[in-house]
Specification:
Chains: A alpha/beta (121), B mainly alpha (110), C alpha/beta (97)
Structural class of chain B: mainly alpha
CATH class of chain A: Alpha Beta
CATH architecture of chain A: 3-Layer(aba) Sandwich
Radius of gyration of chain A: 14 Å
Number of helices of chain B: 5
Order of helices and strands of chain A: EHEHEHEHE
Number of helices of chain A: 4
Strand content of chain A: 15-25%
Largest interface: A-C, 25 and 25 residues
Shape of chain B: globular
CATH superfamily of chain B: DsrC protein, C-terminal domain
Number of strands of chain B: 2
CATH superfamily of chain A: DsrEFH-like
CATH topology of chain B: Arc Repressor Mutant, subunit A
Order of helices and strands of chain B: EEHHHHH
Oligomer: heterotrimer
Helix content of chain B: 40-55%
Number of domains of chain A: 1
CATH class of chain B: Mainly Alpha
Chain lengths: 121, 110, 97
């Protein structure tokens, strides 16, 4: 594949309650495997996906947290989080499983404008 | 679908990947390898074990480009290239090695 | 009545609707357990509701979301057996979708 496009995946759903978050991650990895320029934005309840300390044994599903560690292997380093969404939910960057860039909604909106493709989950 | 081996049965999907990760053992791996026409050597086992460790750590089976890079980092550049991996697993290192390792089909593998 | 809530309070108004409608007990499950976490905007709602409602949250769902160590005071964590006990204890129950 020779054409590289800028893909932004917009994550707005909490993990586990619905399948959206996991499906998004799968598509993210597929896009990255095809060497596309991938970034992830976390807004609204999507920020809960990044909360550290997931213990999913009791609900018998795969925990997300471990897979974030593989993003670097896929050359995915652009992770943007809406600061207001974190704040409203009582979270700070220290509560998150991986390092991210905390931005304002307006800044994230600007980044969205720069993309070739936006996929919202 | 499934596999019958030494009086036990194991569930697989329609492409022959094991459904339950916990079912895996070296005997099954050897059987799956035989089905794939792969003659397992120490170098094959090294990749299989690497994949299983990778899955345990990150909960995904890596795409081939990622596998190549990660193997290079851990086992050295002479092994972290697609030529080496395709020699071991001619029908695709990610696809074939993942099947033998008892992992799901790699994410990003279509 | 036992009100069962499985939606995040930040995404859907199910919790508000239940709180405004009834009394009795609230059981937070699945994404509903985000309402039981300290520090967020939902904490005040849960605290205000505690006069009228007993509030419970499912332990497995708290753990899955990394919230077991930040449950709002006064919220009781229950396991699946406790879930069954609550359903049996109240004459009626309602799952708010």
């Amino acid at each position: 594949m020779s054409t590289t496009k800028q893909f932004m995946f917009v994550n707005r759903k909490a993990p586990y309650g619905t399948i959206y978050a996991w499906e998004a991650l799968e598509v993210v990895l597929i896009a990255a495997a095809f060497e596309q320029d991938v970034s992830l934005a976390f807004l609204d309840d999507g920020v809960f996906q990044l909360k550290k300390g997931h213990q999913t044994k009791g609900i018998e599903v795969k925990a997300f947290e471990k897979t974030w560690g593989a993003l670097e292997d896929y050359d995915i380093t652009k992770l943007y989080v809406d600061g207001d969404s974190l704040k409203e939910r009582g979270l700070t960057a220290d509560d998150l499983a991986i390092p991210v860039e905390v931005l304002s909604r307006a800044e994230i909106g600007k980044l969205m404008e720069e993309q070739d493709v936006l996929l919202s989950f | 679908m499934g596999i019958e081996l030494n009086g036990k049965s194991y569930e697989t999907d329609e492409e022959g990947y094991l459904i339950n990760l916990g079912d895996w053992n070296e005997e099954i791996a050897a059987y799956l390898a035989q089905q794939e026409g792969v003659n397992m050597t120490e170098q094959h086992w090294e990749v299989i074990n690497f994949l299983r460790d990778y899955y345990n750590e990150f909960q995904i089976a890596p795409a081939v480009r990622v596998l190549t890079k990660a193997i290079g980092k851990k086992l050295g550049p002479e092994k972290g290239n697609s030529q080496y991996l395709y020699e071991l697993f001619p029908y695709g290192p990610a696809k074939q090695a993942c099947k033998i390792a008892g992992l799901p089909k790699p994410t990003g593998c279509v | 009545m036992l009100h069962i809530i499985n939606k995040s309070p930040y995404d859907r108004p199910a919790l508000d609707s239940a709180l405004n409608t009834g009394e009795g007990a609230i059981l937070l499950i699945e994404d509903g357990v985000y309402a039981a976490a300290k520090g967020g905007a939902a904490e005040a709602k849960i605290k205000a509701a505690q006069g009228k409602f007993k509030v419970y949250a499912l332990q497995a769902d708290l753990e899955a979301r990394g919230l077991a160590d930040r449950v709002t005071d006064g919220v009781t964590a229950v396991d699946y057996g406790g879930f069954v006990d609550l359903v049996a204890e109240y004459k009626t129950n309602q799952s708010w979708l």
